[in-house]
Batch of 4 targets.
Target 1
Amino acid sequence: MPVLHLLNHTPRGSESFARCLESMAEGDGLLLIEDAVYAALSGTPSAGELRAVAAARNRCFVLKSDLESRALSVRRLAEGFECVDFAGFVDLVAKYDASISWG
Amino acid sequence: MKLAIQINGHPASSMAATTAYQFIKAALRKDHQVILVFFYYDGVFSRLVPAHTEAETAAAVAPPDWAALVSEHGLDLVICSAAAERRGLAALSPAAASDLMRTATPVGTFRAGGLGQWVDACLRCDRFIVFAS
């Protein structure tokens, strides 16, 4: 049962990031929203960890409006991340069988 | 698709309500059905946030206008009464509303409820989504 995992905090000061990555199974998806979008910036340690997750056939998404509201350009995203808008967020929720919010 | 939404973050210190509101609007535009919006933990404070100003409406990310969702889409917005009481919020009856509450969201936007409603919505929906603090 493919699950969509939601993270909304930066990896710093939050255990949810590590717990989320540990629990992800093959075929699950990960959507970074709110401050979690910082984790997808190229050159950061978290982006490296997330790329390892993506390599295990998980798809990683980033909410576009949360990038924009932090004045972050899509060009700064590490390789392997897909940008989605809120309509795309809704489609992801429909596509995966369930969602988990890690906080 | 039938959706149930839970909002757990305080409207002043978390983006949960704002993100959930944008998600709900996008879902409604795609003709999905939102069968319940459940305000839990610090999310119960959403009831106290007044309607936003015109300047805020023009901002890139507008704050939630819950009353409009109720009037335009007939959404069911339920505040967990136990979570509200634990945070010192008065009972939800209009008679008990303080001056502060009268100047915030219109009376009738939210209704009091409990986890039973959330569990019931989870059983009836196709997907539930929690917006964490």
Target 2
Amino acid sequence: MNYSDLFRATLPETALEIAALLVLVVDLGFLRKAALQIRTTVAAVIGVGGCIAAVSAVYAAGWAGFSAGSDLLLAAGGSAGVAQVAILVLTALTLLLLVDSAFTRNAGEYVSVVLMAAAGGLIISAAQDLLVIFVGLELLSLGLYILTAFNKQSGKSAEAAIKYYLFGGMSAAFLLFGFSYLYGLSGSTSLPKVVLGTYMASANGGAPLLYIALVMIAAGLGFKIAAFPFHLWAPDTYEGAPAPAAAFIASVSKVASFALLISISHAILWWPAMLHLKGGGVTFTVFPAGTPQPPVTVGFVTIWPMILMDLSVLSMVFGNLAALAQSSVRRLLAYSAIAHAGYILLGLAFFSWTNASAQAILYYSVTYGLTTIGAFGVVGVVERATGSDKLDSFLGLHKRNPLLAAVLLVLFLSLAGIPPFVGFWAKFNLFATVLNGGWYGFFKGPLSSLPAEALTLVAVAIAFSAVSLYYYLQVLKRAYVMPAGDESPIRVHPVTLAVLLLIGAAVLVLGCFPALLQNWIASFYPAM
Amino acid sequence: MAWAIYISFAGALISALLPKAKPEVARWWALAVAVAGLAIGIAGFAAGMGQGRQVFVDVLWVPSMGIHFLLAADGISRVLVLLTGIAAVAGVLFSWNIELRTNQFFAFYLALIGGVYGVFLSGDLFLLFVFYEIAIVPKYFLISIWGSTRREYGAMKLALYSFVGSAMVLIGLLAAYTTAGSHSTALVDLAHAGLPVSFQMWCFPLVFVGFAILAGMWPFHTWAPTGHVAAPTAASMLLAGVVMKLGAYGCLRVGIGLFPHGLDPWGFSLIGIGSWRDVFAWLAVIGIVYGALVALAQTDFKFVIGYSSVSHMGFVLLGLMTLNQIGLDGAVLQMFSHGVIAGLLFAIVGRIVYDRTHTRQFAELGPMHLSRRLPFAAWAFVFAGVASMGLPGFSGFVAELQVLVGAWQANPWWAAVSGIGIIVGVAYIWRALQKAFFTDALPSPHELGSEQAHKFASITWPEIAGVALLGISTLVVGLYPRILLDSIEPAVKALLAGGAQ
């Protein structure tokens, strides 16, 4: 334990917190009399500045991480590094969407809460210890509850926040309960030691307790990523929260939570390497034929993928089917988010021994986050112009604002997984690693038969993404095909338009040149 | 030839940015782009004469997964690129009267064309799939915005059928890629990966059906008539002319090329059917007969043509399943032939007749005495109809004859039953001809008077040019089929000999 190490490792979080305080000081101290527009702009600019400072801090911090004794608390580089930079970039984009919106008079407070929540996101993407994970999750979640409630004039916003808060509180309790069992089984809170401890404990008859713990944890984390059946908050929150806050919840919080799930999966496979065991070695024992099979120890590796697989299938099926029936675009995006969480969970359930799975999952969650921010940006603009987010308020969008409609087209086709947009590539990449990976992929020889389980689930995922095209087209149909009642042009704030065009262009360019983002992600990992 | 793809996509992008108020500019721009594509197609065809497979571009697109941006063409691809060029130019000519959101129409149109060129020229399975999916979305918008009868229904049905088909293909693609060891998605590499026979046995039908949905294989054909009828003229010309060929081409290049052992006998047989080959051949035969019989019973002129497409595409699929030189030659030639003839038929029905009479019901067309009032349309339809029946001298004859000969060699029953389809084919064209153009009833004096009062708009130059282009194409190929067969034969031989080589 060395405080200078801690300071170095948490430099990005520190940068965000300083920016958060700075926003408050500037907003409440110097700009009390200034016009709302100026205050909002200044707050957003400081927030974006904080994100940029934090990104450079991520790079400056190096790939060392932070350990207490022999236990790694915060990882650096690898998946954590990718997720941290992505979280900061996405946060900056959602802050830019704030410039145009007028749901609050307290822009400074909004920005500072966003930055603190983002700091929570940074912590959980790096956390390697149950306690740190929990602290980070709470920091993130508390921020999100406040953000959801930020539109004080709207009853829906308050209702959504209360729902979100109650569900969130309950799932945090589940998670903590599950963590306490893991601690009881293993005697440690450090992820690799927990994994090792659960093997030993389940060999001594502790397996049922382990199952309960893992189900509890799945419930707690399933809530964060809105996986069925822990998704109930999502449609209401997506619908009630102010658009920039909803964008933040749908993107940053997702990326951070998936980064956390990646850390857990990684620890399950690589705990021996992470423990820095000194000396020793591996002993192979060859049993003569006829020896009774030695007892097989149940650990994380058997039950955890099964839980994830179940959540994944349920989420894909339920999310896509429920989205078909929606008339509100925000609710539609919420259900589609559940479905996308299902696809990503499939990647986690078949996590591979190489970095390919982690990279594919990050690729998917980051590009999905980017696309969703754009989608919420468009929804927010349309909502301000028409007063509603119903499907019919998108009627004739191509006449009312062609650029906005074009961005919507690109983003929704990308969500549906149509090439040449990035969503297609993300899906292909993810499903390819699912087929290649799997916990048992280590033992797979070349040109062996495909794992039937993985293939079936990938087939389900692809079939349901065909279903998803229908509801995405419902929105695009209104924007492009059906006649408009009102054809007055919709004005878009230049900053918002610039952000949306940037996101649209990124979705197209990253889709045409998938290697760009892939190489960037790979650059965070030590060469294997 | 790779430029045909780039030009089309760039043309689509520029067309979207053209001023809305000037439809004239968008039209000429689209025509210029389409003609450029055709010129490249012709030049590429001429240059590739007597050569085998040519590779135009081969760069590593996604190095970590071995995905190549690989554009290549063999004799089959060159013929189909040529067809796409012809259909694209004709389609622009027949949509000369689009006034609503003209620039957007041609933007979607050219994007579709670009995707089609891309599929025919892809030498990498992943790339082929990307282009195949790119073609879906423009179709949806072309039909739902500019279409007619039940356009939103027809468009959504088409989009979902295509997407379900491509989802099946995607599963097959992923499975083949991972089974082959995840090194490369190039067609040649996958064909040489030595995929296990048991794997090919289940992957072949999956991929084949996925593609065949778009080729209009019975019983997955139902999108085709509704889609064709709902589509604006140019879109139905493209749908029948080239998009259905995408499916057939996929069946040939990916299905048969990558999984040849999927066609092996199962080892047991059920009511005479002992392999996937038998299954799909019989489905094709059913499609031929069923499409023709249903076409015979339609009251809507455009539905007749729509179902005739199902019937004619059945010949393509049957030709593929013969797995012999002459049958496959015929299948590829039939793709070209049907693309041109169906385009011509749809152009006459959808553009020349419908845009003047505003009806496609035989009961209403009959009393209009179109043979007298629109002689050009009537005689163009006679020409196209005769070509569609498969009379000697037209491309359809050579193509269908070869398919039937091939089918006879493979299984005489296939040929015998398909023969019924040809006979019915004569009947439904004859019936349409008579009901729409050459009715017996003489006009009453009253009718003559009202005809004088409401004269039809005269035939415009783009219509004449379009009919001439398509008509000459079918005639040239019909009279001198070697012009295409010289290119097709070696490519088919190579494909039969060694997978996707």
Target 3
Amino acid sequence: MIEGISIYEILTLTSILFFIGIYGFITRKNLISILISVELILNASVVNFVVINKYLYPDILQGVFVSIFIIAIAAAETALAVSIIINLYRQISSVEVKDTEIMKY
Amino acid sequence: MIVSAIASVASRKMLRSVIYLLFVLSGIAGIFFLVDYNFLAAIQLTVYAGGIIVLVIFSVLLVHHIEMKLEVSKFINRLLTAIACLIGIIIFVTIIYSYDFKVAENSTTTTTAEIGMGLLSYEAGGFILPFEVISVLLLAVMVGAIVIAKGKMLIPKSDESI
């Protein structure tokens, strides 16, 4: 645990981070910005896992493993999303959400 | 870190918001260092700050002019979303502060060897199956990303020059 920092403060910080991600996810009109917001949300959840593991159950490591898996899945998701965005940009020359209609056949 | 996060979702310029996201990720790696999970912090720095940020910057540079201003949504929409998010934050924080966490006093340091043994153990609490599944998933994602990014080139007699 961190000396002088309680678990409440870190959980408050992660919930603020999570809702910033939600805000960006709703308000931005660009696919890459939405990707960035999703990264913020995933990071907030990872920090939650790690901090709860460290503060409440310091003898086991389950939270660390779950965090590793979340990070790996986030990397995979980002790679796929970037490839889809680039392919989409080739076809319709835009990455705005309102122009994206070609994906639904 | 919070300021950087707000800036990364509010900045009008694409590249700047990616750089703000980089600051947020580095701050989170700092939190991991503070709670003594050095391996996790190293993963965070290499995978996120090294891999994902570079990938996103590449895609931004491929699909944008750098100085292009982003289109933002209407003010009333942004205001409504901000109010909803504030209500959500307030609810979360009240719930968190009303719960009594039983914090265990500890100062143990987790070594990388323990994490490796846990990931590869067959006993109860071992994570060998998700570990293997996620390696297969990563391989599938890499193949899929390459196929999608190649796009029309796979179809024969395509006269589209890319």
Target 4
Amino acid sequence: MSDKSARILLIDDEPQMRRFLRVTLQSQGYELVEAENGHEGLTDAATRNPDVILLDLGLPDMDGLDVLAGIREWSGVPVIIISAREQERDKITALDSGADDYLTKPFSAGELLARIRVALRHRVIQQGGPAEPLFVLDNLKVDLEKRQVFISDSEVHLTPIEYKLLSYLIRNAGKVVTHRQLLKEIWGPAYASQMHYVRVYMGMLRHKLEEDPACPKFFINEPGVGYRLRCKMDNQPD
Amino acid sequence: MEERRPDPDLLLRQVQAEEERRHQGKLKIFFGAAPGVGKTYAMLAAAQQKLIEGVDVLAGLVETHGRAETAALLSDITILERRNIDYKGATLKEFDLDEALKRKPSIILVDELAHTNAPGSRHNKRWQDVLELLDAGINVYTTLNVQHIESLNDIVAQITGVTVRETLPDSVLERADEMELIDLPPDDLLQRMQEGKVYVPDLAARARKNFFRKGNLLALRELALRRTAECVDAQMQDYRRNKGVHDVWPAAERILVCVGPSPFAVRLIRAAKRMADGLHAEWIAVNVEAPSTVRPSEKDIRKLADNMRLAESLGAETVVLSGHKASNEILNYARSRNVTKIIIGKPTHPRWKDLIFGSMLDDIVRGSGDIEVYVISGDVAVPASAIQTRTAVKKTAPREWLISILGVAAGTGLAFIMDYYLTLVDVAMTYILFVVLIASWTDKRPALLASFLSVAAFDFFFIPPFYTFAVTDIKYLVTFAVMFVVAFITSSLTLRIREHADAARRRERRTAALYRLSGELVHERGIKRLGEIAVKHISEAFSRDTVILVPDENSALSILTAKPENLELDERELSVASWAFDHKQHAGRNTDTLPGAGGLYLPMVASSRTVGIIGIILKDSAFFDQEQIHAIENFAHQIAMAIERALMGEEAQKALLKAETESLRNTLLSSLSHDLRTPLAAITGASTTLLQPDALLDAGGKRELVQTIIEESEHLNRIIRNVLDMTRIESGAITVKKEWLHMEEIVGAVLNRLAEKLRGHSVTVNMPADLPLVSFDPLLIEQVLMNLLENAVKYTSASASFEIASSINKDSVLVEVSDSGPGIKPGDEERIFDKFFRSSTGAGGIGLGLTICKAIITAHGGRIWAGNRPEGGASFRFTLPLEEVPPAVDSEVTV
């Protein structure tokens, strides 16, 4: 993959964060474009053609959410939100309005790189790259063409909704998917606030596919935000 | 020689007054003896001078009366637009107070200080507008003629024969910082008058001719000169007092003036005011409510209230006494207050009344002892109607007439029986007995009728010749006369006792109400509750709708309590109340400020501030007399003190809380500085070592240093997170956002997040698969579980095992986090949840984790507690209530 030559736009006003990210990302072979504020970020997003955007929510000149909305007006480029803990609710809003993923400060370089890799892969798929028909994660195997699910090579029967849920998560593997997105996608917009539907079906999926449902290996719960299906890229060394 | 030093109290008062005045504007009065002396001209000339000096001068209201030279002076001064007031179809142009206050010039010119504003203006009188301007810090130039001064009003009327209706309270005059006499000799004035240069609007042509006689003008000029001299004298006194010149005050004098409802009392009041001014004495206006007099008419009550208000406005203390004999009450009160002079009116009634009923004046003069008594002549021109109203009696109910007639009939029946057994004298006595009985039930006139009827019945039935009114023996006529007089006097006495009792009862009721009020107020703390008690008592005592308003932080008034509870005040009423609040004065009905309002608003002034407003809503034409207003003031005072006390209590509480917060903050700071520095020291140490160029570090050593940096950073992050959470919880910024979810999910998330930390520990999760959905805030409960697990890791050995279990009780879900560590020190089970409590085992942390857990669980309506397991190790349990049935999930249809 052309991972290593990817161009990343970083929109963050804090110099020390930019310094850390510059060193980390450049050491990984990424090309980094830095923007100090929202307006500069919007300009760079339009002119520098980045592959991934890292967007800090707390910007001095404008609301990070507005920057996101500005980008989403014309571009589907993956946006990863960087947020402080106090911006918990903003984070969800950002995800629901088109951000691809998020990182909560402080985060480790490993986490960051994993998110970027996932985002880049989705970018490739988005741009018409090959979607793999077979999803494999540890002992979980899903044949997306035949709609079959195997745990340690024995088939597990899922209800249609459970399967839809699983396949949606697989399509977004590695990315966080909010409760609202799942509800809209699986049950339709009318169910967007029926949070318990997701919870109940995710519970069923866990019990059917996880070895220890209380300590899940595949379906990572991000409390208050949504779920993330772990993918192989997460296992890269920290 | 002893140095004469100024009285410190006096000085203090003066300093306070000066301090107050410094923020207030200065009042300059251009004072004249008569219209046409050139006051307005002088005022404008002075204004021109100021204008040249560069002062911001605004002509608020100047009457040029079409005189060209005056108008010329006005030409380059900014003129304030007048406000249009619609009054009965006509449009009146009045001074625009609000606009003037908004403009806030340095000096404003307001002509004719004694002018009466058009109905619908904020104040009745222009001088009230001026006072408001002064309060706002605006300097005022104004004009005034001597005949408008309240205390000189009747003298002016005597001199000129013209009664001036527009009067100015002397207190306003005393308030003046400068008084400039504009003097013009009478001849010159008359000359100007003839030239048509004098404009006198409010006098008819004939009156004008009378007014502008040379003799009058001379007398008025003398009055004006004397008043100016008094004013200068007062300033001199002040000056001397300042300089510590001794003995400016003559021996303390106190004057008492007896005030009744008659218009003549006004003269007494003014005389008293003049005397008090001359002697620099305090003065008291007293009215005696003697039940012996005829029950006063509505009109009398109103007149008395007016008189008392006039006295008050002239600076008197007003007192209402009540007693059987007015002279005794006055003398006793005068003695109790060390009064030195009593002013009383000359009697206007015929002499024979004094002979029969005794003379109050005589009694006072005889009983006065060392008190001087001044008898001031009554005005010959007391209108006859005023005298008539004094005898106006309330309308007698038909029932009372009936009682009178039936009573005499019953008496006659009994008299027949008496007559059979006893003598004629006993018959007469029987009638008298019945008249007394009737008098104790009825009013004066039915009692009089009963006296008359009984004499007639006595004659008719018992005096020969029987059954006629004719009398053969002339001696019976004497009997009749005596009988009538006795019956009449005894019945009057009975009535008098009864009315006295009524008056006493009314007063008693009010006193009792006040007493009950203060009794109840003492036991309450909350302001809302105090307000409820207050409106209850006031509305009961005065039978009116009552409302209490208090200011918020921005001093905007809002209703605290009202009775009836749904009572609302419209914009207008609220603005009246606000005015009363801002100016610490009565406003609304019964007052001179915004009298068109539906309610009377009294400020509740406590020792340190105005705490609110009492509003009493009056029905259409209702009004309060002075005594009632005093009673309301007493109520207001009591309530004000109670509310102030409550406010102070609250403030003390806040101060205490602040002090506690302060001490907590100090604990936090000292704790933080240590806890933050330790990991920082480790990070700095490790990273600087890594930077050493010649360090002999192998790969393992480097890795260990980097690991230290990571771990200590996490440690720092955790401390900061806890401190932030605590702050957010305490400031109320955290709200519980409940969602339906599985406990399992949250446990999974926490285990996932803490995976690194838990490495090496065995964690058992014990959760029934059928645990229902529970409603809680996922982020907050995740925080709780994380804090509990982190604590477990912190306080146990590296190989300790942990268990997370959950179960369902009937109305709550129980979660338990336990470990195989050393357990909690006995006695610490409660304290570990306290803020900044740290276990003596010495592991890091600032003692907030469990406090946060407790706050979160409590906010969820649950409970958290700690203990030790029987098999060893600590156990933390919390419950979350199962308030509702979890929402149903539609069974899945085939997709």
